[in-house]
Amino acid sequence: MPRFWSPDTRFRTFAWIVVIALTVLLGAVSARWLGDAPPPNKIVMATGQAGGVYDSFGREYAKRLSTQGLRVELVNTAGSVDNFRRIIAGKVDIAFAQSGTYQVVTDLEHKVSGLAAIYYEPLWIFVRRGIRIEDKIPYRPGTVSLGPKGSGTEAVAKDILAEEGYDVASPAIVNLPSVDARRELIAGKLDVAFFVTSYRDPGIIELMRHKDLRLTSFRREVAYTRKFRGLTPVKIPEGLLDLKDNIPAENITLLSPSALLVARDTINPRLVELLLKVAQAVHGPGDLLDPPLKFPSLEGVDVPINEAAETYLTSGESFLSRNLPYRALRWVLLLKLLLLPLLAVWLPLLRLAPLIASWRKGRWLKRYYARLRDVEGKLATARWPNELRDGINELESLRGEVQAVSRKLPLQQQQDIYHWRLHVQLILNEALERLGRMEAATVR
User: Fold this and answer.
1) 122 near 116, Cβ under 8 Å?
2) Phi/psi at 4 (nearest 5 deg)?
3) pLDDT tens per residue, the chain (444 residues)?
4) What strand order describes the sheet that includes 94-98?
5) CA–CA dist 312, 269 (Å, integer)
6) For 220, how many CA atoms within 13 A lie in the half-sphere containing its CB?
7) 57/197 Cα distance (integer angstroms)
8) 317, 273 in Cβ contact below 8 A?
9) Secondary structure in 3-state letters for the chain
10) Cβ neighbours of residue 171 under 8 Å, at least 6 residues apart?
11) Contact residues for 239 (Cβ-Cβ < 8 A; gap 6+)
């Protein structure tokens, strides 16, 4: 450390510290404020229950994103509400969620942003034959499953039951995962079970094939959708899901939230574009319930819309995302962050370096000429030989000091050193002549 902070190197060390600090600061500022920070190479995505549709879509997204150079860590959760809470807590970056459930969580700092609605996710209410939701019968304890705690299923089921006049704190209410609810419904242990999932869920078809169970069709869908803005009527014509076995056996009207893709509000805009491109590839073709080219869409998103997502879905992707693959895009933006400090700090510094060097040279020379002047003053006022000898010794010492320093100076500054040495020699010659005269006068 003393070597780097010696009087000779102190200025140079301090200058390097300042320049490096400015470079890092400008890189951080550009990453924070210019919106063009390099996108990540890894994200954490919250899906849903293991084996569910969110889990299935999560694996599909992860596979497609990995081909673009983005690693995805999938996390199984209880469902939509749980996913919102994980985003707010900063535990995940991306998540699937269900419209109509964001209002259940507390997001005072608005950390959640909506990217798009990606498909209809109907509410399926299966009941035992002879039971109707509208009848408001007193259910046995533990016979009405609303889905796991923290799930979107639980949130929408409670809203509908409360509107129908049921006590959502009744002993009849239980919270079972989809697999357990399906098993106990088939076994006759449950009277009612709510599921919010895609028709692709094999468990839904299994329940529709069961003769002792009935899928609830909403006759008053207009009333429900006006009371619950997050729900959309979805009609399933007779035989749509299985023509051979005629499933469903009659026309059915379901209420459907939209499945959403949501993220942290700090998500990188380039990552948003990549996610929405994947969403278009996965959901754009449509299916039995979703019209082609309907999704991804901003319609049905009841979460604050992410600005980059809104721009992408209304105006298209950015120039960089359109012309560069994600892997190259990361390196281009990284290079941009490196070039900005280079242009803002290093190039001006290189232009100023000669001026700074000239200023330092002048300052350095002034300091030694000031010392030379002090010694010359002492020699001029000396009255005795001993005083002259002390001044001459001090002059020799100063000359030796400058000679040692001169070895470290660049060639362009050696001319100044030679000039300084000539001036030293001039003063030294005058002092020696005067000393000689004093000694000669003393001998006489």
Assistant:
1) no
2) -85, -15
3) 455 455 555 656 666 676 677 666 665 665 555 545 678 889 999 999 888 889 999 999 999 999 988 999 999 998 899 999 999 999 999 999 999 889 889 999 999 999 999 999 999 999 998 887 777 777 889 999 999 887 888 988 998 888 888 888 899 999 999 999 999 999 999 999 999 988 988 899 999 999 999 999 998 899 988 888 778 999 999 999 999 999 999 999 999 999 999 999 999 888 999 999 999 999 999 999 999 999 999 998 999 999 999 999 998 876 666 656 666 555 565 566 566 666 666 666 666 666 555 555 556 667 777 777 777 777 777 778 787 787 778 778 877 777 776 666 665 566 677 777 777 788 778 877 777 787 777 765
4) 71-75, 42-46, 94-98, 258-264, 112-120
5) 9
6) 10
7) 12
8) yes
9) CCCCCCCCCHHHHHHHHHHHHHHHHHHHHHHHHCCCCCCCCEEEEECCCCCCHHHHHHHHHHHHHHCCCCEEEEECCCCHHHHHHHHHCCCCCEEEEECCCHHHCCCCCCCEEEEEEEEECCEEEEEECCCCHHHCCCCCCCCEECCCCCCHHHHHHHHHHHHHCCCCCCCCEECCCHHHHHHHHHCCCCCEEEEECCCCCHHHHHHHHCCCEEECCCCCHHHHHHHCCCCEEEEECCCCCECCCCECCCCEEEEECEEEEEEECCCCHHHHHHHHHHHHHHHCCCCCCCCCCCCCECCCCCCCECHHHHHHHHHCCCHHHHHCCHHHHHHHHHHHHHHHHHHHHHHHHHHHHHHHHHHHHHHHHHHHHHHHHHHHHHHHHCCCHHHHHHHHHHHHHHHHHHHHHHCCCCHHHHHHHHHHHHHHHHHHHHHHHHHHHHHHHHHC
10) 141, 142
11) 246, 247, 248
Q: Which amino acid is at 106?
A: T
Amino acid at 332: V
